[in-house]
Amino acid sequence: MLEPFTREEKIRILNTLGVDIPADSKLLDSILEKRLCAALDAAQYKDRLPASMNIKTLRPWPMIESGQGGTTSTRPRPLAKAVQRRTLADARQAGPSLPAAENEETMAIGNPFEDFRRTIRAIARVLDKGGRWCLLRDDSEDRNKIMFRFIAILEVTKNLPLFVVLYQAADQETQGSTEDWVLEQLKTDPPSSSPALSNISSSPLEQKMILKVLKQNSSLVPTDYEVDRQPLEAHFKVSMLIPVGPLEYEAVSKLNNNMGCSVCGKSGGYRCKGCQSVSYCSAECQRTDWADHKAACRSLKDATWRTARLSAASPGKENTTLTLVNRHTSMSLPGAQGSAPMTKQFFLSDGLVHPDVYGGDMFLAKMQLQTAAQRGRGHIMLYDRRMTFVAFLREDKDREVFREFVEEMQGPRGYMGVRMHRWVKRTGNWELSVCLDREPATDVKW
Ligand SMILES: [Zn+2]
Ligand SMILES: [Zn+2]
Known about the structure:
Layout: H1 7-16, H2 29-43, E1 59-60, E2 63-68, E3 71-76, H3 79-82, H4 88-94, H5 112-128, E4 133-137, E5 145-157, E6 160-170, H6 175-188, E7 199-201, H7 204-217, E8 237-241, H8 249-256, E9 270-271, E10 279-280, H9 283-299, E11 305-309, E12 321-327, E13 341-347, E14 362-370, E15 379-384, E16 390-394, H10 399-410, E17 419-428, E18 431-435
Parallel strand pairs: 4-7
Antiparallel strand pairs: 1-5, 2-3, 4-5, 5-6, 6-8, 9-10, 11-18, 12-13, 14-15, 14-17, 15-16, 17-18
Helix pairs in contact: 1-2, 5-7
The chain binds zinc ion (2 copies).
Residues 261, 263-264, 266, 280-282, 285 line the site of one zinc ion (ZN).
GO cellular component, one term: nucleus
Protein name: MYND-type domain-containing protein
Keywords: Metal-binding, Zinc, Zinc-finger
């Protein structure tokens, strides 16, 4: 059987969902678990389901007649299209072009969440071809499998199908019964096109994630929901699969916020009175942290804070894509030593707001002056080390503040007259409060 999730795996899945929890996070296990459950629910947009939804009263997904060469068959209204979920987050990461969906490979790519989306699309294609079962399998080791038989396709709305499934996870020890079950399916419900269609490749981590989702979703199936089981399915469980997509802005912000006490991870604390930049659960944790924190805290005393109103793009670059490359340890994949390069693409549009992953806490921003050939068209690019936020302070939009920032960069606390690192706080979608006249006392790693 698949092992339970490790802490590292939970964080990795949260990271692939856009929840930026560092690998060395101190969040308590119970809080981490809660975030994972909430993130998986958010990826299925479960808050859009009717509050008192009863799957026994939902309409079946419409079937349509399709005829070819004299034979007609009944197929679901195309599901492959209906399960596509694409939000602003996709555009933010990949730009405006859609990935080709029709002839997609079903190979796992190693990002458990993207693999899960791909698996849902592959399942939709099985159903579109008239199939009623499939087998998820780990191609690399051929050890872990999940058997699925589709009991019902239900329609919540025109673009929201739900799949009621009977499922069972299997491993090497239960290999025999898996083969028997597959043979039974091939006999009673042979795949109409290619038999390979019903084999969907799925990594062990993706399978763990799917099993977790199925366990969570089983609460949506009433206990008296009746299912026709085949003889080999006595121990199969009933649950539901719901189309998945990237987390929406609100969900990402919510799940990234309230990271708890910066020493122990416990929630429900207060911020340091000196600087408001760190949170603690108790005086005890605050004392423990003081030796590390005091330099940063004292450096902010009586500082000048300026409000910078920002734009998503520099002049003339609206609605283009910007790629940032950075080295940052906490986003690196498990196993990687030291810092790993990290690349992130931003689609530069005021309509695409960056999720607030700092929840009002201070964070370090790097500011880089770009002088323009044209007078009055200069700008300063600002971004954070975790690359969750990038924005531009434009000379043509706020000449006064722009000039003040350039003067600071060109003064003794700037670097070569074109760069500086400063503590900032998010005060709006496109607004930061910047601690202008203090160099960060911490060692700035970028
Ligand atoms: Zn604490
Ligand atoms: Zn402080």
